[in-house]
Amino acid sequence: MASEPNVLMEANLGEEGHVTTKAVKPVKITVAMIAKRNLPPAIVSEGSEQLIHKMLKLTHVRLDRENIGEIDHMEVLGPVTNLYLQQNFIEKIENLESLMEIRFLVLSGNKIKVVENIELLDKLQFLDLADNLIENLDPEQFPKSLMILNLTGNPCFAKNGYRLEVIKSLPHLKQLDGEMVTDKERREAGHEIVSESDEDSDDDEGLGDETDSESYHKSLDDVLRLSADLISKSKNRTLQYLSSHDGKMAAIEEIRSQSRQEMTSARSEVTPR
Questions:
Q1: Residue 124 CB neighbour total at 10 angstroms
Q2: What CA–CA distance (Å, rounded) separates 23 from 191?
């Protein structure tokens, strides 16, 4: 007999502060899902040949909040630079090897336990793995090209020496968990400290003409800006949730307190015969 697909429980806070749960069946990524989220409806309704042609031109792909259980079908995509897979049920990082142009990868809010299968993505600059289940970290699994990394909300984040260990393995890292990497941390990690002008010069080597150099630095600026935006939005969502939750719980406690007072008052008015 075939085994039943994994069914996960999704928790939600109700209007009166009650936590409700519902069964959610993780799904696989399909061509139809990619097209529906990332292409205009008119193109989705066209023939398959036109659809595939447009999908191969996508550079930014959004598949967040789709109840995705595993990463698949990435080979149908073309030169994707930005991939958004946050707030799903993904347990394993896999099947990304075809995305050799990827620079920006968001996998926050999933159920990932191990960092793996991304070390060959040598153009990846931004990686968000916040709010997963990563306990034991192997920094060698990260591509050396990383400039911005976010691992907040994982068990590994609280371990002693975690930050220095990550910085040691990633010589180009500029920001870790929303905080800029300092020269002091670079020295402690054993990296050579270079001036900003020397670093810019090194970054420009092999970029070709001036247009390529400008494009590179614009790309880095975009990554830093997007990083700040994502972290800010994540913090705001958390604060809003906590504020709403605390307000609702306070209201519930007040109702309970009034109810207890009324019951106590009612008992005191009852006299034994």
A1: 27
A2: 49
